[in-house]
Write a structure and sequence with these properties.
With 248 residues, this protein is an all-alpha fold. The protein is built from seven helices and no strands. The chain has a domain of 170 residues. Helix 1 runs antiparallel to helix 2, helix 1 packs antiparallel against helix 4 and helix 5 packs antiparallel against helix 6. The relative contact order is 0.13.
């Protein structure tokens, strides 16, 4: 039984195929995982930036609203000093409606508005012009702050949308990679199964030639078959024979 170690070779081949497949898995899969994790981290940062931009935008809008409410409150105060006429009632009514739609008046802004109104009511027109100029500067600053906050919010939202699109693409690529790897392993398993089936159930041309040569040399047929087959093939043959040819 000089060839009784032939059954080890197929197992070595199958092991080699499995090792190659595992190395391929380790070589390519982490790249997709790394790309996905980096994109996910970037998405988290983009979402944080968007939330911060939205908060700044809300603060700017509230500051603008509170400043306007302060001016409306002073309008109400001044209108309350006027004689009781339909015009006064209309001013107070409309001012109250507008104020109800705004934030609570900013105390500092309301104090500044009271000073402007008092300067006009007392005839201090120079002081009124100075205070009005400061008020217009403050209004421009609030407007610029609101515009900048809205632009920053829009930019952050666009950045987050772009990152989310990349995250979707990375997830799709990762899924495609996993599917490809699964198909590769399925192919390896099928090939290994076919290889093992062929090696364990068939004789190669070399084995047939070796058996024929041994028989020609005068060796008995069973001895030649025993020499030309592996231990696994011999064992499978005995099992097969015991099942389908029990009397032989």
């Amino acid at each position: 039984m000089k060839n009784n170690n032939r059954g080890i070779a197929p197992l070595l081949v199958v092991g080699y195929i499995a090792v190659v497949g595992l190395l391929g898995f380790l070589a390519f899969k982490p790249k997709f995982l790394d790309k996905t994790s980096k994109t996910a981290a970037a998405s988290t940062v983009a979402t944080t930036n968007l939330n911060t931009a939205h908060e700044e935008e809300v603060k700017a809008l509230k500051a603008k609203s509170a400043s306007a409410a302060a001016g409306i409150a002073v309008v109400n105060q001044v209108a309350g000093t006027l004689p009781d006429t339909p015009a006064r009632s209309a001013i107070v009514s409309e001012a109250s409606i507008v104020q109800s739609k705004l934030e609570a008046p900013d105390p500092v802004e309301q104090l500044a508005a009271e000073r402007r109104a008092n300067a006009i009511l007392t005839g201090n027109l120079e002081e009124a012009r100075r205070l009005n100029a400061l008020a217009y500067q403050d209004s421009a600053s609030l407007r610029d702050r609101t515009i900048a906050a809205e632009a920053k919010s829009a930019k952050a939202e666009a950045a987050r949308d772009a990152i989310d699109q990349k995250l979707g693409e990375a997830a799709a690529a990762s899924l495609a990679s996993r599917n490809a790897i699964n198909r590769m392993w399925l192919g390896i398993i099928v090939l290994a199964a076919l290889y093992l089936w062929t090696k364990f159930s068939h004789l190669s041309y070399g084995s047939v030639a070796e058996i024929a040569a041994d028989i020609k040399k005068g060796k008995d047929a069973l001895g030649a078959l025993d020499s030309g087959t592996s231990r696994i093939q011999q064992k499978l043959s005995r099992i097969w024979g015991s099942i389908f040819h029990p009397s032989s």
